[in-house]
């Protein structure tokens, strides 16, 4: 039997984040193409081809390496055995120098914009991913900013790339009409390009507000988080800045809903999920005026130069002081977020795949 489309879901984890969130929300809209899912666990109502369960991000570097080797040496055999015509990879990984035709999804090129010394991830983006994308039949990405990076960094023709915006779950991220508490919120990892050092510096310049707090929600980093905590101590902000670490998925919408605003002046994002999630909760957003953030926020957020501490501080002070502005941003954000849906993302992806099968 011929199975024209294979979808590589070998990286899926039980509690999806990042790329797994994308794949989990998109593949149901590809069902009309009668795909075979390459996945470690059976998914009802789909034809599934079993693959090892030790190739996910939860196994760390070893899992990543095992997946790369499986992709290079085992996946072509499966492709041939299933008499496939096309492989869809929701991440930029595929067999090189094989007869597999594939379409790959590229999420961002941040490790090239902000390289870390001796990082395996930088080498992965510098040598493996460009080869994957150059051999792809077509490339899907999540924003115009990412599409431009693929052209600029890898010299791949723009006509080979289709940006398709992502979405968030409206059942989870929605306006709950809860009382606002006296904090601003950041969501995400602690990493240099997330720009938290400037956010904390901006926080130190705010006019006195004894109750106002900055909550940093997200997993810490062994190198960068201690630097942030030292900065907080040196600026005398230990009572003003809270490190929440990871916030459980069920609690996150409540934490977002009760914030005065989301503060997310990242130096670069492929898409910027927290911006969309906050707008869907009716929470005002302060974010960057560069990369993908304006594509997501439109005119429904305060956009700042993320390199300018004064601009960040002014935007924070304005949103704290101006209740009318907060109400207007709430309404604009709710309307803006409604323009994004996984159905739109999935159907646009299906149309691309259908044209190549």
Question: If you had to describe this structure to a student in words, what would you say it looks like?
Answer:
With 357 residues, this protein is of the alpha/beta class. The protein is 39% helix and 15% strand. It is built from 14 helices and 13 strands. The protein has helices spanning 19-26, 60-73, 75-81, 110-113, 120-135, 144-154, 196-204, 224-234, 252-257, 273-280, 293-297, 309-321, 323-337, 342-354, and strands at 5-8, 36-39, 47-50, 86-89, 102-106, 138-141, 161-163, 183-187, 213-217, 241-245, 261-264, 285-288, 302-304. Strands 3-2-1-4-5-6-7 form a 7-stranded parallel β-sheet, sandwiched between helices. Strands 10-9-8-11-12-13 form a 6-stranded parallel β-sheet, with helices on both faces. Helix 10 (273-280) crosses helix 13. The longest helix is centred in the middle third of the chain and has 16 residues, at 120-135. The model has no long low-confidence stretch (mean pLDDT 94).
């Amino acid at each position: 039997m011929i199975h024209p489309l294979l979808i590589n879901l070998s990286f899926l984890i039980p509690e999806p984040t990042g790329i797994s969130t994308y794949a989990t929300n998109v593949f149901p809209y590809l069902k009309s193409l009668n795909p075979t899912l390459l996945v470690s666990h059976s998914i009802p109502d789909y034809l599934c081809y079993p693959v090892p369960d030790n190739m996910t991000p939860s196994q760390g570097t070893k899992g990543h390496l095992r997946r790369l080797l499986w992709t290079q040496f085992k996946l072509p055999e499966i492709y041939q055995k299933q008499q496939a015509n096309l492989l869809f990879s929701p991440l930029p990984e595929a067999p090189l120098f094989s007869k597999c035709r594939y379409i790959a999804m590229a999420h961002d090129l941040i490790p090239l914009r902000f390289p870390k010394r001796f990082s395996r991830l930088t080498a992965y983006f510098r040598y493996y991913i460009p080869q994957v994308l150059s051999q792809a039949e077509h490339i899907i990405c999540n924003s115009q900013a990412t599409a431009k990076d693929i052209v600029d960094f890898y010299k791949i023709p723009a006509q080979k790339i289709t940006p398709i915006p992502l979405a968030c779950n409206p059942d989870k991220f929605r306006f709950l009409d809860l009382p606002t508490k006296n904090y601003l919120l950041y969501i995400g990892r602690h990493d240099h390009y997330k720009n938290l050092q400037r956010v904390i510096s901006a926080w130190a310049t705010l006019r006195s507000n004894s109750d106002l707090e900055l909550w940093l929600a997200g997993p810490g980093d062994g190198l960068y988080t201690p630097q942030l905590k030292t900065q907080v101590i040196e600026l005398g902000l230990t009572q003003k800045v809270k490190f929440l670490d990871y916030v459980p998925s069920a609690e996150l919408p409540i934490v977002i809903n009760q914030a005065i605003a989301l503060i997310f002046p990242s130096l670069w994002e492929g898409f910027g999920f927290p911006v969309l999630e906050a707008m869907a909760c009716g929470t005002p957003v302060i974010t960057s005026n560069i990369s993908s953030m304006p594509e997501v926020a439109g005119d429904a957020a305060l956009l700042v130069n993320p390199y300018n501490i004064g601009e960040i501080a002014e935007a924070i002070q304005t949103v704290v002081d101006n209740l009318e502005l907060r109400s207007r941003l709430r309404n604009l954000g709710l309307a803006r977020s409604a323009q994004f849906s996984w159905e739109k993302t999935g159907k646009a992806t299906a149309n691309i795949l259908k044209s190549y099968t």
